[in-house]
Specification:
With about 950 residues, the protein is mainly β. Helix content is about 10%, strand content about 35%. The strands form 14 sheets. Strands 44, 48, 49, 50, 51, 54, 55, 57, 58 and 62 form a ten-stranded antiparallel β-sheet that branches. The longest helix is centred in the middle third of the chain and has 15 residues, at about 385-400. The radius of gyration is 31 Å and the shape is globular. The N and C termini lie far apart (about 85 Å).
C-alpha cells in the first residue's frame, strides 16, 4: 500500500479492506476508540501535510469521535436534496476538499498475542485512509457501511500503536451518496480495535424459518469456524451447518417479536445469537410473513439528532423505536443507507419490520440521462464494483436480523445494469428475502413493485388490476410527505390499503425534521438549508418529518397514529359501537376498553366496555348502556361517547394504560339552526379604515389569506393565489346604516388592479346583552375558483387563555381531522401554536362550537367555525424564517374561519383533491359575542 492520494478519486470501493461479514455480538476482546482524538483540518487534499507516518500532534485540536467536524466548529453543514454541490465529472472532486486528520495512540494488550488485530470503523463520511505506526494500511469508501483493516503485522502486543486516519469530505464515493440530507463529514460512528482469535467465529449466518401450516421451525446456523449451537429454551444443541426442525416453536413478527437466545461456541470464542423464526414469502401477489398478509404502517427514517447529526447514541435509537411502537408504526425503511446496527437489534427486540436499504443515491444525475449528459452511476460500468460491494456489505452486515424482511438496492438512481448486478448479488447471498427498488418502474427484476407519492386513485388502479407489474406486491416506499403543516388526506390511502390485498401500505416521508440546533443573531433556532451561508441548497426541504427536531410529535404524527390504529372503533348505525381488529397476529386480550360519555363537553359518565376478545380481522358490535340512550331520548344535545382501547399491563415499550386506539360516536342528531330571538340594532358597532370594531373587538374584517404552508408554497399554489391578489386584498366600506332592525355594514374586499371582489353584508344586533353578527358573503366578478381561507379576523387586547368546545386538543384542518376529538379544551395562547421549523399557517381548530378568550365568549349560531388565535399577524408569520422571529406583543389576533382549504401533501406528492379545496361561493356565518 502506497501513500498515493489518487485513491480519493478512485472508482474502487477501497483497498486493504477485509471482506464483509456479519455484525456479531461476540466475546472477542475489544478496545473502544470512541472519545477524544487529536484533530487537524486542512482546506484541501493538497494542503494536508504529508506527515501521517509520524505526525507531530503538538498544537492540534481535540475532537470527539463519533461526530461530524462541521458540528464541532470546523466548516459548516450544507443541505441539498437533489443537486450535487460540486460539478458532475466523476470521479473528480473539487480542489476545495476539506480533509481531516485524526490521530490516537492505543496500547495493544499483552494478552492479545496470537490473535488477529482488526481495526473496525462503523461509519466514516466520505472516504478515508488508515495509517498505523507509519504504514498506510488501506482506504475505504461507503460512508454508512463498516470497514475493517488487519493490523496484525503492524502492531505488537504490549506496545503502543499510533493510528492516524485521513478523512476527505469529497471523493468519488460522494457521487453515489446524494441522499437528501445534510452533507456532514468525519468519523461519525464507533471505532473499535478487535482481537480475533484463530478459532473464533467471525462470520455467522443464522437461517431461521417458520412453517405457518404445521407450526414447526427450522434452524440452520452457518459459520466460518465450525462449532456447536445451543438454544437452551428449545433444548437444542446442534452443530453448525446442520439443518434442524423444531416442533412447536413460536414465530417472530412485528406484533409478537419472539426471540430465542442462543449461543454459538467454538474452541476460541462464543457468539450470542438472537433467533427469530419467521418466513417471508410472496403468495398470489401478496407479501406474507408467517402466512399473514403484512400491511406496512411505516416511516422512512434518516439517522438524525439536532446537535449530533448522524452520530446517534444508543439512547437516541431507543427513543426512536419506543416512539414508533407507541404510535402504532410497524415498519421502517432505512432511508437511504443501512442504519447503525444497534438500531436493527432494537427492531428485532421490540418488533418493527425493516426494509434495509443500501448506501446509494444518485438523484442529481437524473433518472434516465441521455447523451451528452453523463450516465447515471448505476449505468456506468466504472462504478459497478463499488455498487455491488456496497450491496454485499449491507447484506452481510445485517443478514442475521429477523426484523429485516426486505433488502433495498438504494434510492432514486434511475435504472442501469449495475442495479441488476446488485440484485443478483443480494439474491445469491440471501434468497430468503425479497428485494426492493422503486425506480424499477416496470418491475423488470425486483420482487416488490414500489412507487413514491402516487395518489390514492393511482394506488387503487394498481390494486384493482392484477395484470399490472407482474402482480407483484405493491407498496409506497414514500408517501404522505410530512413537510410543515401536514400530511393531509392519509385516510384516503388507508382505505385503499384495506380494500386491495396487493396494496400493502407504505412509508411516510419521513420520520424527523433535520433541523440543526444553532444560534442566529443570538437566538436559538433549528437551522435548515441556507442558514449556514450555503449558496447551493434546498431550503427547509430537509424539515419534512413527523417529529420536530427535538423528537416531539407534530400534529401530522398524531394524525398518522389515528389513521393506522390497529382497531377500528365506529358507530354501528343502530345506536351501538362496532370494534374491528386490524391486528395481523395479536388478539385483543391484552387490551382494556373504556368508555366516557360527555354532554356539551361535560363528562357525565364513564366505565369499562365489555368487548369480547377479538382475533385478527374479527368484529364485535356492542350495545351501549341504557343511560346513554336515555339522554338521547331526553333531547339532550352534543352527546358524545368516546371508546378507548388501552394496554391492560405494561409492555417493553409502553406503560399500562397507554392508548392503543380510540373512536368517538355522536349519539344525538345535530340540531338545525336555532331560532334567533329578535334583537335591536347594535349601536356600539363602528366601521372605520381598519375594519369594524365594538367593545374590545377591533378592526374585524374579511380574511382570505393564510401564511403559505409548504404544501402551498412548493408546488406553486401560493404563487397562483398571489397572482389573483389574495395576499393583498383591500377593504372598502360600501355603506353603514341601520336597516331592518340591525346595524348593517356592507364592505367590499378586493385586490388592487383586478376586477373581482367579495361583497360582505355584516348585520349587527344586540340580543340579551350579547352582540350577534350575521355575515353574508357574495363573490362578484372574475373571482378565484379557490380561496386559501374565508373568515373574519380581528384584534383583541392581549389574551392569555383560550377555552373552547370543538375539535382538539391539537390543530385540525378539513383533511387532518381524524385525530381531532370533540370536547372542551383549555390552553394558553402560546400552547395553541405549532412550532413548524419554517413558520407557516398553523393552529386551526376546525368545527368550533364556542370559544372563550379571557372575558370574551364567541358562539356559533348555526354552521360551526374554525378557530385560530395568535399573538402575531399573518404577515409576521409569513415573513418569519424561524419560530424565534415571532415575538408576542400586546395584541392577540383571532381568526374565525367559515372554512379553509385543506393542507394535503403537494410539496412532494399529489395535488390537493377538489374535495378539500375551499371553492369560492356565497356563504354565511352567524356568531354571538358575549362579554363576561
Amino acid at each position: 500500500m502506497t501513500d498515493d492520494l489518487s485513491y480519493v478519486e478512485d472508482f474502487a470501493p477501497g483497498a486493504g479492506v477485509l471482506p464483509p461479514r456479519a455484525w456479531l455480538d461476540d466475546d472477542a476482546e475489544r478496545i473502544p476508540l470512541s472519545g477524544d482524538w487529536s484533530f487537524r483540518l486542512s482546506p484541501s487534499v493538497a494542503d494536508a501535510p504529508d506527515d501521517l507516518k509520524d505526525p507531530d500532534t503538538t498544537g492540534w485540536d481535540t475532537i470527539a469521535v463519533p461526530g461530524h467536524w462541521q458540528l464541532s466548529g470546523y466548516g459548516a453543514p450544507a443541505y441539498t436534496n437533489v443537486v450535487y454541490p460540486f460539478p458532475l465529472e466523476p470521479p473528480y472532486v473539487p480542489t476545495d476538499n476539506p480533509t481531516g486528520d485524526y490521530v490516537r495512540t492505543v496500547t495493544i494488550p499483552a494478552d492479545w498475542s496470537g490473535a488477529r488485530v482488526v481495526l473496525r470503523f462503523e461509519g466514516v463520511d466520505s472516504r478515508f485512509a488508515v495509517h498505523v505506526n507509519g504504514s498506510m494500511v488501506g482506504w475505504s469508501s461507503g460512508s454508512r457501511l463498516p470497514s475493517e483493516f488487519d493490523l496484525t503485522e503492524l502492531v505488537a502486543p504490549g506496545k503502543e500503536a499510533r493510528i492516524a486516519v485521513r478523512v476527505h469530505q469529497w471523493s468519488a464515493g460522494s457521487y453515489v451518496e446524494d441522499q437528501d440530507m445534510w452533507w456532514l463529514s468525519g468519523i461519525f460512528r464507533e471505532v473499535n480495535l478487535l482481537a480475533l482469535k484463530p478459532s473464533a467465529p467471525t462470520d455467522v449466518f443464522v437461517k431461521a424459518a417458520w412453517d405457518h401450516i404445521d407450526g414447526a421451525g427450522t434452524l440452520l446456523v452457518e459459520s466460518d469456524v465450525p462449532g456447536m449451537v445451543s438454544v437452551p429454551e428449545l433444548g437444542l444443541e446442534v452443530p453448525t451447518g446442520e439443518h434442524t426442525r423444531i416442533e412447536g416453536v413460536q414465530p417472530w413478527s412485528a406484533e409478537v417479536p419472539r426471540l430465542y437466545d442462543g449461543v454459538l461456541r467454538t474452541d476460541d470464542g462464543e457468539v450470542r445469537l438472537r433467533i427469530g423464526f419467521r418466513t417471508v414469502a410472496i403468495v398470489d401477489g401478496v407479501l406474507e410473513v408467517n402466512g399473514n398478509r403484512v400491511l406496512f404502517n411505516g416511516v422512512n427514517r434518516h439517522e438524525f439528532h439536532p446537535d449530533r447529526g448522524r452520530a446517534l447514541t444508543e439512547q437516541d435509537m431507543l427513543d426512536d423505536v419506543l416512539l414508533m411502537k407507541r404510535a402504532g408504526i410497524n415498519a421502517v425503511r432505512t432511508s437511504h443507507y443501512p442504519p447503525h446496527p444497534h438500531f436493527l437489534s432494537l427492531c428485532d427486540s421490540y418488533g418493527l419490520y425493516v426494509i434495509d436499504e443500501c448506501d446509494l443515491e444518485t438523484h442529481g444525475f437524473g433518472y434516465e440521462p441521455e447523451p451528452p449528459k453523463l450516465p447515471n452511476p448505476v449505468m456506468d460500468p466504472r462504478f459497478r464494483d463499488d455498487l455491488v460491494a456496497r450491496m454485499a456489505r449491507t447484506v452481510h452486515r445485517d443478514k442475521n436480523h429477523p426484523s429485516i424482511i426486505i433488502w433495498s438496492l438504494g434510492n432514486e438512481c434511475g435504472m442501469g445494469e449495475n442495479l441488476r448486478a446488485m440484485y443478483d448479488l443480494a439474491k445469491e447471498i440471501d434468497p430468503s428475502r425479497p428485494v426492493h427498488y422503486e425506480r424499477d418502474t416496470e418491475a423488470e427484476f425486483v420482487d416488490i413493485y414500489s412507487r413514491m407519492y402516487t395518489s390514492p386513485e393511482g394506488c387503487a388502479e394498481i390494486g384493482a388490476d392484477t395484470s399490472l407489474y407482474r402482480n407483484l406486491p405493491f407498496i409506497l416506499c414514500e408517501y404522505g410527505h410530512a413537510m410543515g403543516n401536514g400530511p393531509g388526506g392519509l385516510l384516503d390511502y388507508r382505505e385503499v390499503f384495506d380494500k386491495y390485498p396487493r396494496c400493502q401500505g407504505g412509508f411516510i416521508w419521513e420520520w424527523i425534521d433535520h433541523g440543526i440546533r444553532t444560534n442566529i443573531d443570538g437566538r436559538e433556532v433549528y437551522a435548515y438549508g441556507g442558514d449556514f451561508g450555503e449558496t447551493i441548497h434546498d431550503g427547509n426541504f430537509v424539515c419534512d418529518g413527523l417529529l420536530f427536531p427535538d423528537r416531539t410529535p407534530s400534529p401530522g404524527m398524531l394524525e398518522y397514529m389515528k389513521v393506522i390504529e390497529p382497531l377500528r372503533i365506529v358507530a354501528d348505525g343502530n345506536g351501538g359501537v362496532s370494534v374491528t381488529s386490524r391486528y395481523e397476529v395479536l388478539d385483543t386480550s391484552h387490551l382494556t376498553f373504556r368508555m366516557v360519555v360527555e354532554v356539551a363537553g361535560e363528562r357525565v359518565g364513564e366505565g369499562t366496555l365489555p368487548v369480547p376478545v377479538l382475533a385478527p380481522g374479527e368484529t364485535a358490535t356492542l350495545v351501549l348502556p341504557p343511560g346513554v340512550h336515555k339522554r338521547v331520548d331526553g333531547g339532550e344535545s352534543e352527546i358524545w361517547v368516546t371508546v378507548t382501547a388501552e394496554l391492560t399491563e405494561a409492555t417493553s415499550w409502553a406503560e399500562a394504560g397507554h392508548r392503543i386506539a380510540w373512536g368517538q360516536l355522536r349519539m344525538d342528531e345535530p340540531a338545525g339552526e336555532p331560532a334567533r330571538p329578535a334583537g335591536v340594532s347594535a349601536t356600539n358597532v363602528v366601521a372605520g379604515i381598519g375594519g369594524i370594531s365594538f367593545g374590545d373587538v377591533r378592526d374585524a374584517r374579511l380574511d382570505v389569506w393564510r401564511a403559505p404552508i409548504d404544501n402551498d408554497a412548493n408546488p406553486g399554489v401560493a404563487d397562483a393565489w398571489r397572482e389573483q391578489g389574495l395576499h393583498r386584498v383591500q377593504h372598502r366600506i360600501v355603506s353603514q346604516r341601520e336597516r331592518d332592525g340591525a346595524w348593517e355594514v356592507v364592505t367590499r374586499t378586493a385586490p388592487p388592479q383586478l376586477q373581482w371582489g367579495l361583497v360582505s353584508t355584516w348585520r349587527w344586533t344586540t340580543v340579551d346583552g350579547a352582540v350577534v353578527l350575521e355575515l353574508n358573503v357574495v363573490p362578484e366578478g372574475q373571482f378565484p375558483e379557490v380561496l386559501p381561507r374565508l373568515g373574519i379576523t380581528f384584534e383583541l387586547p392581549k389574551v392569555e387563555r383560550v377555552e373552547w368546545f370543538g375539535t382538539g386538543p391539537n390543530e385540525a384542518y378539513v383533511d387532518t381531522r381524524e385525530a381531532a376529538a370533540v370536547g372542551k379544551y383549555s390552553a394558553m395562547v402560546a400552547e395553541l401554536q405549532t412550532p413548524y421549523v419554517r413558520p407557516q399557517e398553523n393552529g386551526h381548530r376546525i368545527d368550533t362550537r364556542w370559544a372563550t378568550l379571557d372575558g370574551l365568549r364567541i358562539e356559533a349560531l348555526g354552521p360551526l367555525f374554525g378557530l385560530t388565535v395568535r399573538d402575531w399577524t399573518t404577515q409576521a408569520l409569513e415573513t418569519a424564517k424561524h419560530t424565534a422571529d415571532l415575538t408576542p406583543g400586546d395584541t392577540t389576533y383571532v381568526t374565525l374561519d367559515i372554512a379553509q382549504t385543506g393542507v394535503g401533501t403537494a410539496a412532494c406528492g399529489p395535488a390537493l383533491p377538489d374535495r378539500d379545496k375551499l371553492k369560492t361561493a356565497p356563504t354565511t356565518l352567524t356568531l354571538r359575542f358575549t362579554t363576561a
